[in-house]
Design a protein that fits this description.
heterodimer, A: 780 residues, alpha/beta, ten-stranded mixed β-sheet, 18% strand, B: alpha/beta, TIM Barrel
Chain lengths: 780, 329
């Protein structure tokens, strides 16, 4: 076209970014890659092709890892880890700082390579992915520097196995590697097979940055390599980002192995638009929510919920906006929507949309040949429609209307996922009132897809657990420095069930919904002193008692909305009422255990209640320093309903050590008290009843832990399960928790000193809370 | 969809489309207008990175920008001689050899914009060119002279041959939420303009909030403005991308509801060729290609042309240019 013709048409033309330097880098590497293990490249093995999805051209040949490769990488990481940890916070900070600087130095190469390998628009790779990568290393250089003073008593977990997805190849690498190595761990990372190239380029950068050999190891290949990493017995921690389906398998596969695990999985993020929102801005937000990275974003705002009164106008505006989107060569700087990562993914998207009801609108933009899918809006769907529930992972937005704020919350939370949500309204009361009600790890007010290293990112429900970014992200790569021993199973004492003379029969019941309830099984057992003397009876809890207790706990949702001050008062009141009966409880403990520790245990219990009474109004979260004009609030929210198997060895203190932090933070609990010594717990009902604890907040089901653990772990309406049982149930609990991917905190058959400092504190508070990051940009 | 505009007075909206007759003041609509500043700023901050116009396309776009310039002099020391020089530049804004090299001819600026006293000189200098003369009016820039004089000033300028009148609104009506007063004032200004087309200067830098900008934009369009314009160039903050986005979204809403296209004129502070490309892409993205014509889009600018000329020479020769190689205005 001549200038004169363009003057008439006013077309954009093309503005391609040069692929030259990236292609030259690939040629320099021989277009063939081995793994990066122990600071060096391995021989190229059996390879697979890495293709540019936009053109289909083969970019490089990448080695398919073998179990032997994984062994070698883990061995290198293991060998390097102690020295890397010993280097100290400042030493590691220097290396992370060098990585940040080098990422910036090579920013254009990384961006172009990412776009070629993944298909995302160069604008996104250049302006979003790569700057966030550099930011992540800068931020974590800072965490490394401060860790020793700010996280005392913590140490690195060890060797981390990390498996990352193809949608943000380099960014997810940064989110995994930066906190791990900042904390003093070493890593074995597997990039997704579609997108290995920037990880390999990063390996090159590690060498330039002076990362010691073996600290960062990268093994390429398909899911089999991931499985080998996850299952490897010398891996201490597994971190995975990817689909919920694979995440669930990883949870099952690692059950009982004592591995720390974080999962960042799928989502179906609600994008809520109220009638008083700036509708044009909300529509522009949707462009960044669902047409960012072709919608291949776990936290995409993929589920539009729009208030009825403005729905038609909003959809009209949205369709007009969609028609303005430009699809095409991802290297073109004026492209909004690039290529889907792989033909397999394209077929998945097509299949899901083809089967859909509702009214399907495809953007009127030109769709290039090949691996491209047009921006699509499906209106008129209801929650019951499949596409309102299932993650599409493509540029497809589904929409449904709502009437009231409460209904918006109800629809938003009507999902198995809980990763991110957006709320659009000009009413601050509405926005900030809604934020705590949305079941999600991240809430954006009048915005979407905002990320920063200082702000935690991660999900609840089947979107996984663990956070990336912030101190909470670092904590996933640390463990307390504690010496533990193997925990022996404590058996109940036995004896003869002779009636106790001159004593009125007292068979303890369950404590459910604020009432004492008979065990559903109708069975009870005798509780005996070490000398075999019968000292009481206790109900044998079963799965139905757990079911009832969970129902009661779910019914007590109001507790989570109470103030910290109120919860503190109740905890102090429990302490007061417990102390009033201190002698009785001490005698009971001594009678059951045969020890003389009863008095000390009651005193410790009172103190512990005070500890969490103190914490109840002091652990609400904090404000994060993020690069926007606005706030990012890291809110500590209760997890929900926590099922816990209490320690067996300290019958009263164990129960209180578990219950108090949980309810202090606003959770409701279903507790299985010490199985061999249950009567301190059953006596405790009366303390609860006289201390203004609302019914359903604390529920106690006595019985053998092994009979209760499986039901708790598999229960889909329990949000977390903790186990400190002396019966080793860790594997069963972790395995069965995969059903709803509830959080688990298990002892792996190791001891904990309940009378000492390990028995209370921040570790408990962290487990009792989820960090929800609420982004509130502001300014008029 | 492209409406080709090639009538002799192509710069005047009323020559192409039916002119906006205005409508009753719809306060429900006005009060429902929202503008989320942070979101608007994000959109504006990322737009330059989302749209890139290069090479021949860039040259063509810059030429288009020239045709949308209201070449302006609004200084206390303006003389007729100065205005004649400006008009000469408006008629031949780009060196002939550069236009030849680009294969384009007949490029002029959109209009010449002057104070009332300079209107006759400008009209005379531009006679037969089809380039309209725009007069700033109604007690420009503050708009605080007696109302009857402000209305009379419009009539004087129209009588003197101005085909476009750039009025200033009473900011106090916006700041005190007196939308009816703003509407009535604008209605009278419009009536006084007669056939001349009227641009409403909102002085956005003095309106306090983007929400006020959105609401004032709607009220002025309802009262019959042909164009809405950001600034006088005399406020401390003049045209910005966020303000522009708010105003052109209001224009879009007005078009969607009434079917009448209102023009947009950012004024003040746009001095770089690159900025003009961003503004054009903003118009193209938010309103569409129809709004890339001088009858619906103008830059109020005095030094922008010089930078565009240098960029065009760079495009033609490959060498960076110098200001003195291009004719002064």
């Amino acid at each position: 076209m001549t200038v004169k013709e363009i003057f008439e048409t006013m077309d954009y033309g093309t503005a391609p970014e040069s692929a030259g330097d990236a292609l030259a880098w690939l040629v320099d590497q021989g277009d063939r890659f081995g793994h990066f293990i122990n600071g060096d490249w391995t021989e190229v093995g059996e390879t697979f092709e890495s293709r540019n999805p936009a053109t289909g051209e083969v970019l490089a040949h990448v080695t398919q890892g073998t179990p032997a490769d994984v062994d070698a990488a883990v061995a290198a990481a293991r060998k390097a880890q102690p020295k890397w940890a010993k280097l100290g916070g400042h030493g590691r900070a220097r290396v992370l700082y060098a990585l940040a600087r080098l990422v910036q130095k090579h920013s254009r190469l990384l961006a172009v390579l990412e776009t070629m390998d993944n298909g995302k628009p160069i604008r996104e790779a250049r302006d979003i992915d790569v700057p966030l990568v550099a930011r992540h290393f800068y931020y974590h250089a800072g965490l490394a520097q401060l860790m020793e003073t700010e996280a005392p008593g913590m140490e690195p977990v060890g060797v981390c196995g990390q498996v990352i997805p193809w949608n943000f190849p380099l960014l997810m690498l940064a989110w995994k590697i930066a906190p791990a190595i900042a904390a003093g761990n070493t890593v074995v990372l597997k990039p997704a097979e579609y997108t290995s190239l920037t990880a390999l380029c990063f390996a090159d950068i590690c060498r330039q940055a002076g990362v010691p050999k073996g600290v960062v190891n990268i093994v390429t290949g398909d899911g089999r390599v991931g499985e080998a990493i996850v299952a490897h017995e010398d891996i201490d921690k597994v971190a995975f980002t990817g689909s919920t389906e694979v995440g669930r398998k990883i949870r099952e596969a690692t059950a009982g192995q004592g591995k720390s695990l974080t999962l960042e999985l799928g989502g179906k993020g609600p994008y809520i638009v109220f009638d008083d929102a700036d509708l044009d801005s909300a529509i522009e937000g949707l462009v960044d929510a669902i047409w960012f990275n072709q919608g291949q974003v776990c936290c995409a705002g993929s589920r539009l919920l729009v208030q009825e009164g403005v729905a038609e106008r909003f959809h009209d505006k949205l369709r007009a906006r969609m028609d303005k989107l430009r699809m095409g060569n991802p290297l073109d700087k004026s492209i909004d929507v690039g290529a889907v990562v792989d033909p397999v993914q394209l077929e998945t998207i097509k299949g899901l949309v083809e089967g859909s009801g509702g009214e399907v609108y495809r953007a009127a933009c030109d769709v290039p040949e090949g691996c491209f899918y047009p921006p699509t809006l499906i209106t008129g769907l209801a929650p019951a429609d499949r596409l309102m529930q299932e993650e599409i992972f493509g540029p497809v937005l589904v929409s449904c209307t709502f009437r009231t704020p409460d209904e918006a919350v109800q629809l938003a939370n009507n999902t198995r996922y809980g990763l991110a949500a957006s709320v659009w309204t000009e009413n601050l009361n509405l926005a900030l009132g809604l934020a705590p009600k949305l079941v999600a790890g991240v809430v954006w007010v009048n915005g979407t897809n905002m990320f920063d290293a200082a702000a935690g990112f991660g999900g609840v429900r089947e979107s996984g657990f663990g956070r990336e970014g912030g101190w909470e992200g670092l904590s996933a790569y640390l463990k307390p420095h504690a010496k533990t021993k193997s925990l022996a199973t404590i058996a109940a004492h036995t004896g003869k069930s002779d009636p106790v003379e001159d004593v009125l029969d007292r068979t303890a019941k369950m404590y459910i919904g604020g009432k004492q309830a008979r065990p559903d099984s109708g069975y009870s057992r005798g509780v005996f002193s070490p000398q075999g003397k019968l000292i009481g009876h206790v109900g044998s809890g079963s799965r139905k008692d757990i079911r009832n207790a969970v129902e009661a706990a779910q019914g007590a949702k109001g507790w989570s909305g109470t103030t910290g001050h109120l919860r503190a008062q109740i905890l102090y009141y429990i302490a007061e009422n417990l102390e009033a009966r201190a002698a009785e409880f001490a005698d009971r403990i001594n009678a059951m255990t045969g020890s003389k520790q009863g008095k000390a245990e009651v005193a410790a219990s009172v103190s512990r209640l005070f500890t969490y009474g103190a914490w109840a109004d002091k652990y609400a979260g904090d404000l994060r320093s993020v690069p926007i004009r606005g706030m990012a609030l890291a809110v500590r929210e209760p997890v929900g309903v926590i099922g816990a198997l209490c320690p067996d060895d300290v019958p009263l203190l164990g129960l209180i050590s578990v219950m108090a932090p949980a309810i202090a933070m606003g959770n409701r609990v279903v507790l299985a008290p010490s199985a061999p010594f249950p009567l301190a717990a059953t006596d405790f009902y009366q303390v609860l009843e006289t201390s203004d604890v609302p019914g359903g907040v604390v529920n106690i089901v006595t019985g053998a832990h092994k009979d209760l653990a499986g039901t708790m772990a598999a229960h889909l309406d329990i949000d977390a399960v903790w186990s400190f049982s002396s019966t080793d149930l860790s594997q069963e609990i972790e395995k069965k928790s995969a059903g709803n991917l509830k959080r688990t905190w298990v002892n792996n058959g190791r001891t904990r000193d309940w009378m000492g400092a390990e028995g209370e504190g921040r570790a408990f508070l962290d487990q009792a809370t989820e960090v929800k990051t609420v982004w509130v940009p502001y300014g008029e | 969809m492209q409406t080709k505009v090639d009538s002799p007075a192509a710069q005047l909206p009323q020559m192409v489309d039916a002119r906006n007759p205005g409508m009753e003041l719809d306060l429900d609509w006005v009060m429902s207008a929202q503008a989320n500043t942070s979101a608007i700023e994000r959109r504006c901050a990322t737009l330059p990175g989302r749209r890139s116009v290069k090479k021949d396309h860039q040259a063509a776009w810059l030429l288009r920008a020239i045709t949308c310039i209201d070449l302006t002099t609004l200084a206390g020391d303006d003389t007729e001689g100065r205005v004649r020089r400006l008009c000469a530049k408006a008629k031949q804004p780009v060196r002939a050899d550069l236009l030849d090299a680009l294969g384009v001819e007949g490029i002029t600026t959109g209009a010449v914009c002057v104070y009332h006293e300079m209107v006759p000189a400008a009209v005379q200098a531009l006679e037969g060119t089809g380039i309209p003369v725009a007069a700033v009016s109604t007690g420009f820039p503050a708009g605080l002279s007696p109302f009857h004089l402000r209305v009379a000033e419009i009539g004087e300028s129209v009588a003197a041959g101005a085909e476009e009148i750039d009025i200033v609104i009473s900011r106090r009506h916006v700041l005190s939420g007196n939308w009816q007063a703003l509407y009535d004032e604008m209605r009278e200004f419009r009536a006084a303009c007669g056939e001349a087309h009227v641009k409403a200067i909102l002085a956005t830098g003095e309106l306090g909030t983007l929400r006020n900008v959105a609401r004032a934009s709607l009220v002025c369009m309802m009262a019959g403005a042909d164009f809405i314009k950001t600034s006088t160039g005399k406020e401390s903050v003049n045209a910005t991308l966020p303000v522009s986005l708010v105003m052109i979204r209001a224009i879009r809403d007005y078009y969607e509801r009434t079917g009448f296209r209102i023009g947009y004129k950012p004024a003040g502070g746009i001095s770089k060729a690159k900025d003009s490309l961003v503004y054009l892409s903003l118009m193209k993205e938010e309103l569409g290609d129809r709004w890339l014509q001088p009858d619906l889009f103008r830059f109020g600018a005095s030094s922008l042309l010089g930078d565009i000329e240098r960029q065009l020479e760079h495009h033609v020769t490959g060498a960076y240019s110098a200001g003195w190689r291009h004719a002064a205005g």
